[in-house]
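Notes from the 1:1 (GR / supervisor)

We went over the backlog. Supervisor wanted to see one worked example end to end before approving the batch request, so GR pasted a single chain during the call. The sequence is below; no edits were made to it. Supervisor asked that the structure be written out right there so they could see what the output format looks like.
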Amino acid sequence: MKILARLGLIAGALLILGACATVDRYGAARDVHALLVSIRDDDRATFEAHVDRPALERQIEARLVAETRRRAGQDQGLNALGALLAQPLAQMASDALIQPRVFRAVAASYGYTPDKPIPGPLAIGGALRAVGKDQVCATRRKDGPCLLVFTRQDGVWRLSGFEGEISELRGGAR
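Structure output shown during the call:
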């Protein structure tokens, strides 16, 4: 009888943990939906409220440094120059790329055009995967790689990472 009670307790704990992950995904889905609507409607205030611009800038900077190291190899001078220029270049890239119109162009390249309805929070929640405490990611396929990362900050889920290729954003930066 004790074994059944323990198994029941373990099963209950697993259900509670699973429900927490589900709540995070579907809680995040409401804010992701709001971000998608802001992109479609070019609502800059709502867009900025749902984007962690400093986190995205840090990610762009880290990618620039890594690419410089990859290309420069052992050349310490080029690596130093890349590290020196990465932050201002990341700031400029952020200003140009982290815009509703850029994300609208990326969405269009995936087939999400303004004439199509934006999926509701329930559908979006099904496409999100918990990846850490207060973090979820969006994937194209359920078992696919993360493309967009959202982090909960002060009760709001904000876009905090882009795992796709930066070249995907360039098309909308015109």
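Supervisor's comment: The longest strand covers residues 146-153.
Batch request approved.
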